[in-house]
What does this fold into?
Amino acid sequence: MIKPLEGIRILEWGIAYAGPGAAAILSDLGAEVIKIEQPLIGDPTRYLSGMRLEIEGDVNIIFNTANRGKKSITIDLAHADGKKIVYDMAAKSDVFLTNLRSPTIDKMNMDYPSLAGVNPRIIYARVSAYGTLGPDADRGGYDPQGQARSGMMYMLNEAEPRMIPGGVVDHATAIMASYQIMIALFMRERLGIGQEVDVSLLGSASYLMYLDNLLRLSKRWGSFRRDELSPLRAHYKCEDGEWLILRTPDRDWPTVCRLIGVESPENDQKFKDMEKKPAHARELIAVFRKAFAGKRRSEWLRIFSDKNLIICAVNSKADALDDPQMVENGYVVDFMHPDMGKVRIPAFPIRFSKAEVKSQLIGPKLGENTFEILHNLLSYSDDDIAKLKENGVI
It folds into this structure.
């Protein structure tokens, strides 16, 4: 079966996660991704340690997931022959992706005008911390900076900032970068144009907060606590200590009250009109909490599902990975890793009826594909390659 991006070649000059993660997504979709790394050094993420990140050969899971399915070529870009190799590859590629800062890009002549000069149809993708414009355009940053500067760290608790763990902004930025690249490729197919595109940690984090920001900008959003929401839009702890979350329309108010065994406040003048309920939400939620604490979660889910009401379990992170909906839809899949054996990994969550998407967890060894790329793609001779190696270019 064909792959969605089969035949697309991407050059990546990037480190850490947000940039390389975008190319990894495109690799899942079938693109050929060539990762450019410094000889003997490579992407610093290769050598992250601690937090049980290491796997066989001291290459960690973060590097492998951000660079899965790629090829690695080592090139010294400070050398004129090194730059020529990249230009030669760019002439035969569809995309150049980097998340390095502008001073480094300019110093190495890897900017958009330079690469567009050898390939006017190339898509030049930038991933940055704060965007390519503004006073901090050249400043670096990681996931925490994206969360902090966007206001996201106050989403969970407005009293003090809290960081969401797990690299959520890094990965969101990788998704956004892959998305912008595919849009630019689509434009090129329709209009025949190459272009420069950019996405940032700050922009991605802010866009994740789209609805919240929209309501704040329109002055329709204030701070709130869980016990100030509607009882039909809250989460509750059950008899067995497990949680569920209810999110059902106001029209289901009498039905929900009947199912949980409380008298419908519709007969109480105090709560008669739905629009007045927010004023008494705290009192109502206390009633609902007591009711939900009277049965096990599985019982409540069955009761509500029989009425086709919108409710579900609040999964722990471990339970979520075994949820039948996650498994049956292929959001988590089995993968045979050469060092770790059979492992379960997250998968690309979009399905195609006539195309194949393959997720994996193997990044390339440093410089593993240097000879192959120079010989097969660029037609360098064995003598040419030997000379480049002797001069420290590769």
Q: What stands out?
A: The CA atoms of residues 55 and 61 lie 7 Å apart.
